[in-house]
Known about the structure:
By secondary structure, the chain is of the alpha/beta class. It has one domain: Rossmann fold, CATH 3.40.50. Helix 3 links the parallel strand 6 and strand 7. The chain is globular and about 30 Å long. The C terminus is likely disordered.
Amino acid sequence: MRVLIVDDSPQRYPVLEAYVRFLGASEVVITLEVPEDLSNFDLVCLDYHLGADTALDALERLPPERLCGPPYLVHSTAGLEATMLEDWLRKQGLQVERLPYPPLPGRHRKGRTL
């Protein structure tokens, strides 16, 4: 499983990478910005705040066909803003789940399809 982690906080990378590997990731790509095409990944793990931008702003700029494919895991501490991101992803017909940060042990089972 190829996983993309989009987060601008390097201190979170080890925890997030360990978590997605626990879920079954064989390859993990970490980036500070939302790339132009997300369809090459099996799971996209998003933080809401990305420096001066937000994940929601970045995703809204992408053509809808570039969003298709992977389920999304929102791992933000941003509360209401992260809920807005989740709602927007669902309105696009995408599968999304919220992951409290830091991840809570036992919330997901290894191999579970998100």
